[in-house]
Amino acid sequence: MLHIKRKSTWRRSALLVIAAVLVMTIMAACGGKKDNEGGSTGLTFAGAGKGTVVATYKDGNVTEAEFNKYLDIFNIMQPGYEQVIAIPQFKEQLLQQFISYKILAKQATEATLKKAGDQTDEQMKSFEDTLKTNADVKKTLDDKKVSTADVRTYLNLMLVVVEHMNSKVTDDEMKAEYAKNIGNYNPVTVRHILVATTDPSDSTKTLRTKEEALARAKEVKAKLDAGGDWTALAKQYSDDTGSKDNGGEYKDAKASDWVEGFKNAALTQPVGKIGDPVETEYGYHVIKVEKRDQVAYDKITAEQKQEVQSVVAYNHMNTFMTDEMPKQDVKITLPEASASPGASASPGASESPAASESPAASESPAAK
């Protein structure tokens, strides 16, 4: 299937781990009374305060042992990142993020800790049931010497931060965000025919040049304008395997999940009109918007409100990262390590979860 959804922008910014956790089905947290250092008993990794210090900040430090435990669990949650984490710049970015989470978790109220803890108790039961039936997951934990208590601590930290940022969101902020980006939160139905420049199943394989794709897209539009049948023409011309067999239709979809050019067309193109070919990273799309709903804020569902809250919470997190973290006097002293072969850039240039998908509205620190 051709995915026309936007790539995760959480994977391009500073909060990598939160989004990684939020999309997990085993998301959990554990509250607890505050200890002498101001943290929560459920927020402290094994090795904290012991051994070599790899970072200091205004109110604390990170030891090599606790950071390595954090990375081990991150690898379990995000398999495939092992080589990426070996890149020094990225490892340092993860450490910066870990510090920010520790600082924010320390600011969390007892109510926030309680809410996160309640979610943990519920979700950890599911996780532990998975361990009983999934030998692969259990072996991974055993191989890395990660206990269920370690997993609980990791997820606890993530979710406490999530709930802490949610607690900062006001109803007025949510109303303003909804009014500004109303199209992101309401369903839209479109038909499209994609004339791709690259093979949807193999992005390294060129199907046609941009000029050839545009000419073919214009040919499709002319046939549609002349009364051509969407079902027949989509089957003949479209390279989107996800929609070509149903007349190119995406019904009641979220425009915010699509790549920018396609999203803009879905939100601005007149309903019922077949627009000129729209270029995206996939090629050229001939698009017809069939329906675009816009519901008043006081009429939206609880799920939609949660999406709005998520975006506002992300904005608060982004503000903290850009405005407050520089004031924390962070000093990092990670041991020097050679970059992995072929690694020439931090993963921020590609895809990785963390301050988010611009945010893609659905992946933000408040998503649950």
Structure write-up:
This protein has 368 residues and is an alpha+beta fold. It has 2 domains: 9-175 and 300-349, no CATH class; 187-292, Chitinase A, domain 3. 45% of the residues lie in helices and 13% in strands. It contains 12 helices and 9 strands. The strands form 3 sheets. A 4-stranded antiparallel beta sheet has the order 6-3-8-7, with helices on both faces. Strands 2-1-9 form a 3-stranded antiparallel beta sheet. It has a two-stranded antiparallel ribbon with strand order 4-5. Strand 7 and strand 8 (283-292) form a beta hairpin. Helix 4 crosses helix 7 and helix 7 packs across helix 12 (302-324). The longest helix is centred in the first third of the chain and has 24 residues, at 110-133. The two termini are 27 Å apart. Mean pLDDT is 82; it is low at 1-41 and 339-368.
